[in-house]
Amino acid sequence: MSSLPAHVHLHSTDPTGAVDLESPRAVLEAMDAILYQRFGADYGVAGGRALLARAVNDVSLAFRGEFPGLLRCDTFYHDMRHALDAALAMTRLLDGHCRTVARTAQEAINAECALLGVLLALFHDIGLLRKPDEADLQGASLTPIHERRGVHFVEHYLVDTVLAHRILDAELIMITRLDYKMKPEWLPWQKALAGLLGAADLMSQMADRCYLEKCRDFLFVEFSAIGLTGPGNPYPDQETLLRKTPAFYTGLLRKRLTEEYDHADRFMAAHFGGDCPYTAAIERNFGYLNDVLSSDDFGQLRRHPQRVIDGR
Fold it and tell me: Exposed, middle or buried: residue 272 (CB in 10 Å: 0-12, 13-18, 19+)?
């Protein structure tokens, strides 16, 4: 485990405690090390290293409101940290997949598609950022359409890159929509990449040290923007959201990971060569939540998460 600067709080790090998720540079360095070791110089793609660095910088600019055509992020749960968190998780899952799946297998993911997958993870929630003519909206109100908006963003983004010929694969972002099913016509490697992307999105969220408090304080607010909270709605209050979270995990998210994503989370363990810090963190979170619910003492949720937009 690498040492972290003194100002970096443990709540700011990934499940290994080694990467500051509030620092675009730290996350880029961690992803760079994995991709370089796995695929070699430029990650096996001409200009690949420069493209990843550009993408990390651009996603940072976008959340700050400094990317052309996008306003500053106003969502709390889906912030810049989540984008970086998902991208790092995706990189690790990709490495685990490459360690496990033979290069000659139909579902094998080559260097080019691996780089594409990391970019898709970085930008998968970019559709929640408002455009200049949407300044009167809440970004969270775009939740029902944000995946499709993300697809359109990536399609335009890739036009002048070495991955321009992969524009149509931006569609894979749609897999992060919980009611979206993989297309039968997708090739085996596309299904594999989509499964990893979906797993990276879910695992990075649930392994967050402040996941429970973020559900209570942040996700509830985003749900309010789309009419899911208040009397007569699925989540009338924050406590109800937390009470429903375990069943949401076991009944939908866990099933999605195992069935729709074909147990894609197993590749995280493969990356780490054994015990998986993400799985351990998720189990801790839900174990603690079960204790909170059984004692009916929500005061045990004492952490105070911060929305991360500007980074370090």
Answer: middle
